[in-house]
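This protein record is not my work; I was only asked to verify it. Where you disagree with what is written, explain briefly why. This is what I was given:
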Amino acid sequence: MPRAKAEPVELKYLEPSKITLIPRGQARPDMTIEGDRSYLAVGVRRAFPRSLKNEYIAFYDCKDTEIGMLRNLKGLSKEAGKVIAEELDRRYFTPSITAIHRIKEEYGIAQFDVETTRGRTRFGVRSVRENITELETGMVKITDLHGTVYEIPNVNDLDPASRARLYEII
C-alpha cells in the first residue's frame, strides 16, 4: 500500500516585540501575541538544543501544537526573555560534572557521588555501556536512572583522580 504523502508544515515566525509571557511559578507560562490571541500553559523548546541555544525557539500550546517560532531572542522584553530562559533551563536541565568523588557498583547499578555546576549530588546509572557515552570531542554524557542527563564538557578538564574513577567503569 502506498504511503500517504506528508503535507508540508508552514513555519510561523513570531515577532519578538509582540510577545508577552506571564510566569506561573512552577507551571508553564501563559503567552499573549499582540493582535492575535492568548495561550495558556505554553511549552518552550529549542529547535537546535546543542548548537543554537538562543536561536529558533519554538512555542507549543497545551495540546503540543506548535504556535510559532522566534528566530532569536533579540527584540524581546526583558521580562519575556527571563521567562524563556527559566523555561529552557527547566526543560534542558543538564548539570556539568566538575569532579567525581566516588563511583561504587551495587547490584548492577553504578552509584555516582559527584560535584556539578549545581552542587554536589548522587545518582545511579544502570547499564553503563548504554547510558554513558564518550564523544570524539572529549565530552561525556551520563544518563541516570531517572533520565536526567549529566555532562562532562571535556573529560581532560577533570582532575586526574576523577578521570581515573570514570575510566574504571567505562
